C-alpha cells in the first residue's frame, strides 16, 4: 500500500511542476511600479533607470541622506561605468518616485544639471537641491557612514 501512495504522489507531482513552470513563463515582468527592473545597492536601495540617462534612487524607509549618495555612486560606477572622478548631479530633489510610487526618492544624472541656488562650499548630504553634486568617490565614501557599527 505504501508503494502505491508514493507512486500516486510522483504521478501528480511531475505534471503539477510542469504546469507551474509553464505558467511562470507566461508572467509579464512589469516595466514600471515596484516590480520593475531595478539595481539593488548595498545601501539597501533600489535604483531605477529612467530616460535621458537619469536614474532614481529609492532607499529603504527612513534612510539617511548618505544612503542616497552611496546608492547613486554605486550605480554610477557598477552599472553605468562611471569613473571615480565623475560627478553625480541631483536632477530632482526628494519627491514621490515616478517608478515605484514610494514617497521618498531622488533622481540623479551624470550630466550636469543647472543649479537653482548659488553654490555653497558645503553641500549637505540630506538637502538634495537641483544641481547639487558629488563625485563618485565622494559618494562611495559616504557608504561608510551608513555601515553598521558592531561593538564587542
Q: What does this protein look like?
A:
By secondary structure, the protein is α+β, with helices and mostly antiparallel strands. The protein has one domain. Helix content is 32%, strand content 18%. The chain has a six-stranded antiparallel sheet with strand order 1-2-3-5-4-6. A hairpin with a 5-residue loop joins strand 1 (39-40) and strand 2. Residues 21-32 have low confidence and may be disordered.
Strand content: 15-25%
Secondary structure tally: strands: 6
Overall pLDDT, averaged?
77
Into which percent range does the helicity of residues fall?
25-40%
Cα(first) to Cα(last) distance is 58 Å
Question: Could you give the order of strands across the largest sheet?
Answer: 1-2-3-5-4-6
Major β-sheet profile = 6 strands, antiparallel
Which helices and strands occur, and which strands form pairs?
Elements: H1 2-26, E1 39-40, E2 46-49, E3 55-58, H2 65-78, E4 87-95, E5 105-109, E6 133-135, H3 136-141, H4 143-146
Antiparallel strand pairs: 1-2, 2-3, 3-5, 4-5, 4-6
Question: Could you list some keywords that capture this structure?
Answer:
4 helices, six-stranded antiparallel beta sheet, 152 residues, globular, single chain, 18% strand, alpha+beta
Concise account of the structure shown:
With 152 residues, the chain is an alpha+beta fold. It is 32% helix and 18% strand.
